[in-house]
Fold this sequence. Notes:
The complex is a heterodimer.
Chain A: H1 3-7, H2 10-13, H3 21-56, H4 72-82, H5 93-109, H6 128-136, H7 139-149, H8 153-184, H9 189-199, H10 202-205, H11 207-220, H12 232-235, H13 245-270, H14 284-306, H15 314-341, H16 345-370, H17 375-378
Helix pairs in contact in A: 3-13, 3-14, 4-13, 5-7, 5-13, 7-8, 8-11, 8-15, 11-13, 11-15, 13-14, 15-16
Chain B: H1 15-18, H2 21-39, E1 63-65, H3 80-84, E2 90-96, E3 105-113, H4 122-126, E4 132-134, E5 149-150, H5 152-159
Antiparallel strand pairs in B: 1-4, 2-3, 3-5
Amino acid sequence: MSPLTTLSVPVLAGMPASPGFLDVVLKIVQVLVVEHAIVILGALLVWGERRVAALIQDRVGPNRVGPAGLLQPIADLLKFIFKEDVIPGHVNKVMYVLAPGIILVPALTTFAVIPFGPGISLADVNVGILFILAIASLGVYGITLGGWASNSKYALLGGVRSSAQMISYEVVLGISAVGVLLTVGSLHLNEIVQWQASHGWFLWHQPLAFLLFLTASYAETNRLPFDLPEAETELVAGYHTEYSSMKFALFFLAEYINMIVSSSLVTTMFLGGWSLFGLERLGWVVGILIFVAKTLVLLFVYLWIRWTLPRFRYDQLMNICWKWFFPLALGNVLLTAAGEAFRVPFLTAWVLPVLLLATGWLAARISWQRDPGTPALATVPAGEAR
Amino acid sequence: MTVTVKQIVRVKSTHKERLYFPSILSGMAITIRHFFQALGGRRVTMEYPEERWEVKDNYRGAPVLVKDDEGRPKCVACSLCEYVCPPKAIYIVPGELEGGNTVERGPEVFNINMLRCIFCGLCEEACPEEAIFMSKEFELWGEKRSELVHDKETLYALGGVRPDPIKKWSHK
C-alpha cells in the first residue's frame, strides 16, 4: 500500500487487514493528535465552565490571561504543576497514586470508538456502544479507589456514593440506549449515525430515550444536579478531598473529559452525529466540524444545567433512578420492540412520552383545582411576600 | 419550665412541582436570560483596575495634610490630632517653619502610620486649622512596613492644595 492511499481519510476508520509499519505509525499519530485535542478541549472546558458560570451569575469570569482569558488553563496547569504534591501519611499509597490514572484512562479510552467524522474514528469497533458502556464503567473504580485509599471519612463517603450512583445510572444508560439499538439493528456507532442521516435524528424517533440517556449521562459524569460524590456542601470535596497538585488536576480533568465523551456519545446516538441535512457530503472536514459543533452545544447544556439546578438529595437521586427512570426505560424498550415488530416504530416511540405528558397535565389540572392554596404562605399579602 | 412548641406548617408540593420538568425548564429560562444579559454587558461586577468607583464626598480614605492657596502648609503642629487619635497612629514633632513665613509653627516631623490608622476621621474633626482631611484615597499598599508610614512629604503630596476663603495667615 502506497503512503498516499494510506493518508486518505477512510484509513482513519480502521487498520488494514495486515498493517504495515507505516500504518502503525500513522495510527499512533492519529491517536496522539485526537487524544491531545480531547485533553486540550477538556482544559478549555474548565475555562468555558467558569465563563458560563460567571455570565449566568451576572459576573465576568476569568478574562485576564490571554484573549478573553483563553490561556487560563495554562495558568491553572502551571499552578497545579508547581504545587506541592502532598501524600498524606494515612493513605494507602499504591491505590492513592493509582486512582487518578485509573479514572483518567477510561475517560480517554472511550473516545476511541466515537465516529467524530463520516466513518472516522480512532478504532472501528463494531460493538462501539458496548465498548463505551464497558470502559466508562471502569471510571467508577478510580473514584471509589481514590475515596477508599484516602482513608478519610469524606473521601470514603464520596467514593461509596459514587459507586452506588454510577452503578444505578449505568442501568438506565444502557437500557435507554437499547431503544436506539433495536431500531438500527446494530451496535456500530457509525451505522447508527448513518441510519440517522437517512431516517432523521433519534431525538425525534426516541424522545424519551434521549431524555433518559441525557439525564443518566449527567449522573454518570457526576455533574450537577447529580454531583453527590463530590458534594462540596456535604463532603468538603468528596472523593478527591485528600488530593492535591497534579493528582487532583487529573481527577478534575477526567471529569471534564468524561463530559466531552458523554456529550459526543449523545450527539452520536441521538443528534445525528456528523450528519446535518446532507451537509456532511461536502467533505469529511465539514463532517468533523458538524460533530464538534453539536458536541459543543451539548456541553453548553451541561454547564447551563449545572448552574441552574440544585443538587438532589441522596434518597431523591436513588428514587428518581429506580422508581422513575428505570421503569420508563424498560417501557420504552418494550414499546420500541413492539413498534419494530408491528412496523409502527415512530408511533410507539411517542406513546410513552405523550402518555406521560397527558397524565402529568391531568394531574396538574386536578391538583390545581383542589389545591386550596398554600396555607403557610397564604397569610402573607402577595405584594409583601418578596 | 414550660416548653413552647412551634407548629411548622409543611407546604406540600403540588403535582406540577413534583413533575420536576416544568420547574427545571423555567429555571433554565431564568439562567439563560441572565447569561445573555451578562453577555450583552449587564453585569454586577466591575473590571477593577480599569473601571473605578466614584467615591462619595464624605468617604473617609487616608488622612492627608493640605496647603492653602498660597502654598503654605496649614498645619501648626498643635498636636491635637496626635492627642485625639484613638490608635495613636499620628506622631508629630513641632518645629519652626523656615523661609520668613508668617506661620510661626509647623511640624518638623509628621508621620501617620497607615498600618495603625482606623480611618475614624477624629483627626479631621479635631483640627482647629483645617489642615488635615480624610481624602478619597483608598488604594494603600507598600512592599515594606516603612512604606506604609506616611511622612510629611507624602502627606502633603497626597493632600495637595485646598483653597480657603478666609486666608488667616495673610492678615497676621
